[in-house]
Structures
1.
Amino acid sequence: MLDPLARRALQRLSAYVAGRNSPAARAAREGPPPVQLASNENPLGPSPLALEALARTAGEWGRYPDDHCSALRDALAAQLRVPFECVAVGAGSTALLKSLAEAYLDPQQTVVYPWPSFPLYPWIARLQEAQEVQVPLDPKGRHDLPQMAEGAAAARVVVVCNPNNPTGTYVSDAELRAFLDRLPGDVLVVLDEAYAEFARDAAADYPDGTRWVREGRRVAVLRSFSKAYGLAGLRVGYLVAPPEVVEAVARVQEPFHVSAPAQVAALAALQDRVHLARTLAVVAEGRRRLQALARRLSLRTYPSVANFVWLDVGRPAGEVGGELARRGVLVRPGPAGSTWLRVSVGTPEEVRRFEEALEEVLGGCGNGRGRRGHRRTS
Ligand SMILES: *Cc1c(COP(=O)(O)O)cnc(C)c1O
């Protein structure tokens, strides 16, 4: 029940429900620890260098953190070959997304975003009382860029989720450049690249959005330490954008918004090439196995370049998610009524647990989607 005195805008949104807080996930908590494939985290966990840095600096946590995140921004600027003034850090890239919305969207201004995509886009738009233009993905599960460009004619912000969560599909370098060329100059383009590290590894024509920042375009690139870098629990992400965009964000960020441990761990993780390479290898292999599973069970899917796969299980995904949870495997079902669910790529053992559970759930339900008796439809 919402307090009737709360802002009217709040009646149009509900609190975000994370994968691990779904009813199915709560039920699974009774048994042994479940396999966590619901939130696209790094299955190897944090970099050992990050853990060392945390242990080394724990004595300093009685002090406020560096409000400018100087060391981390310096390292990011050097690695990305952009000036320090082009980098902002936030408590997760979702915090930066919210800051961008607070800085750029007055009530009734328009934001364009793809759908289905990251549920935080509509949530933040509604919080700002913005007008939303939701552009459906095309039949291949990809951004419909011509439709988005049309919607952008009267928009203040356009969001490109690259690769897209939950489909795992991506917009190529040439496609994105052509799209940017079509947009009016007074639009802020937000490139959400939370999964950039995986996509770069998987597709040669996956664009590095920071290049357009170096070219001086009004583009804001969002990256995260929650996914490939394995620091989801610490809440840290970054933004690469023209200095005037970074200044706008700085004016809405609250003081000391990124904790000292988050800054220290992110700096160390950024330097740990070995852990990142290991992560990318585990994810590439696990993703291949999940795609092979989809072929074996004749489940529709899209070619993912991220650390998750979106599967059409041919039955209400909420139910299938519940049955998987009872078998100790947590995944992320699509919105109510959807037959699609998103599964994160885990360790080989976690992928095996998911394969077994899914084959059992789909094979045992007598709908012809199981291992036996189902013909390929595509
Ligand atoms: C996970 C995710 C994020 C970021 O998460 P943070 O933990 O807030 O950095 C951003 N965008 C998309 C599309 C994501 O899936």
2.
Amino acid sequence: MNEEHSRALYDRALSVMPGGVNSAVRAAIEPYPFFVAKGDGGHVVDADGNRYIDWVMGLGPLLLGHDLPDPVEAAIQRHASRGPMYGTPTEIEVELAEFVVRHVPSVEKIRFVNSGTEATVSAVRLARGHTGRNRIVVMQGGYHGAQESTLVDGDAENPRPSSAGIPQSFAEHTIPVPFNDEDAMREVFEEHGEEIAAVMTEPILANYGIVYPEDGYLECLREITRDHGALLIFDEVITGFRVGGLGCAQSRFGVTPDLTTFGKVIGGGFPVGAIGGKAHVVDGFSPSGPVFQAGTFSGHPVTMAAGLETLRFAAENDVYDHVNRLGERLRTGLSELLVDRAPEYTVVGTDSLFKLVFTRDGPGPNSHEEQCVSGCRQEPTCPRYDHCPKTGADVRRSDTDRWRRLFWGEMKAEGVFLSQNGFESQFVSYGHTDEDVERTLAAYEEAL
Ligand SMILES: *Cc1c(COP(=O)(O)O)cnc(C)c1O
């Protein structure tokens, strides 16, 4: 495979950008990332003309794939050509807000921002302003973007910043607990209940493997936050408009958070974030409330048009049926391959999310029927139940070096672009075909 151009570009990039990239995970590929020249349906073509089946899809935003349907592309062009933005409201913001309010059960009002990070930063500030409390509870292995309050490792007793540049005194307002652990959550509330502004979690951990909630766990979070006067924030930056269709993951699980953060799909491939929720909470944002929130680019007309037309297209076409069916084929096909090739590994994912976690412990199933055939659902009757990942730490203990250093490159050599490490999810888009799935499963069979 010729990679001359990518190599030369990376050489130039290293001279002018830290690590040669603008977002850390992109550099996880060794010895250097390939540079993309263009997308095409479910594929990307790199700077040297190599073509890959693309299961990264921008790390989540591209529900429709790289070829935008005509109405989406037309709306983007129309709004871009009118002069990109104004610093005063436009109709398209109202239309996207109305669409989200109509489809997402918990959202009565919404504020648009420019990234998932900005959404979670603002949600935390809003929760603190609303409750008059400072502490927030997050999940170990959860991800809420590059922000001070959530780049925190350790546990409830010893929270510490997970990045240089964050004061220990900031980290002390954050309480990390294991996902799927009701007892740990109850203990934290018994001890600090009066000080906790919010529990913030992804409804499905989707940045550290894909970890499904155990039956009743999200309900438990709902109950315990309500009992203690804290808010429940679902970070649906990945799951929003991907899991559970237009109702998002909260409609799948039937649990109604106080606040929801959005990003990725809701901007149709352009920079976006949003904070939605009950009107009396979201009205806490300035100018209606005391919690300052503002942004030059917020509600950008081109982004709003891309988001609205993407979601409308999904509402009017078989988008979710298509991506979920291919997701199911991938997960089922992978779990069939594992029976012979690597029975100790775990297939995870739901809807259009999929991943193979290189877990190492425990007996494998003797037959395909004995496991969660379409991806781990934390089924207590599954023979792998005791060994499937239930927390971020379980995923971290898997064979992530093998995944990244050996397996990823073999898949690339087979013409398949998977996410850059053993943690990040992979995404099916409307641009993918059954043939892409078949070729991908054949590549897994070679590489495993
Ligand atoms: C991607 C992501 C974020 C951060 O969004 P950015 O747009 O990258 O700032 C926050 N939360 C979750 C769950 C995410 O997956």
3.
Amino acid sequence: MEGLETYEERFRQVRENIRGAAERAGRDPEEITLLPVTKTQPVEVLEAAWQLGMRVAGENHVQEIAEKKKHFGDRIRFHMIGHLQRNKVRQVLDKVELIHSVDSLRLARDIDRIGEEMGLCPKILIEVNVAKEASKYGITVEELPETLEELSHFSHLRVEGLMTIAPFVENPEENRPVFRALRQLFVDNRENPFHNIEMNVLSMGMTNDYQVAIEEGATLVRIGTALFGARQYTTA
Ligand SMILES: *Cc1c(COP(=O)(O)O)cnc(C)c1O
């Protein structure tokens, strides 16, 4: 773990970059939410970030969310950003503020059903595989209208917007068309007749490409490495 000053400096730098990108695009920096991604980081690192004002964090494993939630209680609001297995839905619904990674209608149906059983109305984003990468989850651009129509019949979930994970590229400019395409979908679906579907959150951009994503309209960026350094994956 690094010293507090290191994290402080990285948060400052990322916030400055967010502001710069917003200003280049003529946007208000206040419209953009920074979601620090704390997956694989130990609670000590989250505690340090909490001291620096972090109150929301992205995680990609249900078990890790459960453990960190146990430690932090309501001090940190967690977002689920990783692929959610259908048999883990029940464990996660009451522990997260937003699920970014709803990547199939089947998963949404389970969330709705279990949400009803648990007396919850979970907030979700629809994950769109804009670049059509075989290795990535998400519905296709073409499937979105039909998916939204189906989701409008569900009474125990609330769609808050869209999310994508852009390809890993050397030059972030290569992802500009991906971000632009998702933003267009977001705008096109803003006016829709469905009571439980809103387009408030456009979750796109990570360490390598968040500035381009903001220039193209992201309202939330998910950033791990730039804040916490390279992740160490240990096999426990
Ligand atoms: C890990 C992860 C991130 C953060 O990635 P960095 O490149 O470390 O910023 C963002 N989004 C998702 C879905 C992730 O799994």
4.
Amino acid sequence: MTTFIPVNEPWLDGNERKYLNECLDTGWISSEGPFVRKFEELFAARVGRKHGIAVCNGSAALDAAVAALGVGPGDEVILPTFTIISCAAAIVRAGAIPVVVDCDLQTWNMEVREIEAKITSKTKAIMVVHIYGLPVDMEPIVALSLKYGLKIIEDAAEAHGLYYKGKSCGSFGDISTFSFYPNKLVTTGEGGMVLTDDDDLAARCRSLRNLCFQAKRRFVHEELGWNFRMSNVQAALGVAQLERLDEFVVRKKRMGKHYMELLSGIPGIRLPLHETKYAENIYWVYGIVLGDEIPFDAKEAMKRFAQHQIGTRPFFWPIHEQPVFRKMGLFEDVSCPVAERIARRGFYIPSGVGLTDEQMKRVAEIAIRILR
Ligand SMILES: *Cc1c(COP(=O)(O)O)cnc(C)c1O
């Protein structure tokens, strides 16, 4: 019997156990424990930022980032339609309007050339999201932010260890966020972080994360925050994982190269770019988009992989097609043909950091059988 190959498995065989035992031995399991500060400092240093504020997940990090920037009713925020719901949810929950742009067919990242036409007097920020292991082309976006006085919110949840022109992803936003969900390159089980160089924004995020407790009189609140705190147990995992990030990135790049060699002979499919003019892919996930030559869609392909004991995941569903937002009357006349297309024709195959050569070989053999 063949064993199932999951789409992702975390790798936890470094110092994770040792640091978790430290939490138990010392009794420090809450957010007050020493690993939280340590993880914040190490991670911020790694990305090249002044402040890191650890939170309970990447979606919460986006909520805190949007709130900290003071985005609110009447404001518009431009973001890619091809991303996770968390990005638009943070904007909508703040009372602001999400304005989407389509994505590029090659990189699956936001179509930077579409942004300027969407800027209005209400635009407050551009939310960029690095997708699946390649970064957004940041230079033109930084130029637009300067030209129009816009803030940049950078969702780097899929971009641990990724560089744009030699500069770390997560270092471009006025405020940047990460997720440490188990399928991310550094995991804390559940977790996230907000990063910034701005002292005031950092203080605001720390306050928002902790119910906006005040130093002067605890339990008296001037503002509403959330409990978005990360526990010492989560941060202990994070410190151990971060120690191995370079090794993980090397393995991921190797995986991407290996899959490319194994799969490039299949006609009619689009594979991730190994590199662009400004970055080398770290293959957070290894995506496949089916061309017109293939007479079925991603849903059918994923069903066939499952029959062969191989896990897959569909691509993101575009924000402008989300029923929850359509019911709110958002995105009524919006069309983004590229995102609509890759959402229906794209999926990703097992891409975990611990994936073995044998597993990749089996995935490729099945892919060839199914897609040829
Ligand atoms: C994973 C992810 C998030 C959300 O992170 P959670 O920790 O699962 O809440 C946000 N944005 C992007 C781009 C992601 O990939």
